[in-house]
Amino acid sequence: MLSILQSPLIKYGIVGLIGTALHFALLVILVEWGGLHPIAGSALGFIAVLVVSYILNSKWTFTDASGQIRLRQFIKYTIVSCSGLLLNTAVMYAAVELAHLPYLLGQCIITVLVPLHNYILNRRWTFRPDVQEKA
To answer: What is the pTM (predicted TM-score) of this model?
Structure first.
């Protein structure tokens, strides 16, 4: 069991579950209590989760020996997350405005697509061990 928890994919999934729970909670709070449009609420939730997920992924999922947070790495992570945000926003727009689906169903679709997109880019670019900047 412990060896399974050493897999970057499993760790990324756990971080993703934490981020997803936070994203959904923020979305509902911003839409239901804050009166924001679902597209804006989803985008703001996504941005808030960016910081939390970067810290967890850099310190636990894709950590190097130093475990330090690096500016270049954070910028790459932010670029990947922003591309995920564009995908997030496009899917929410398509779901809510074009398909007239409930916003939470749109968020469920996003929950499948965006993490897969982000994992692939982060694994291959942001946290690739052979290109991480030196301390």
So the answer is: 0.69
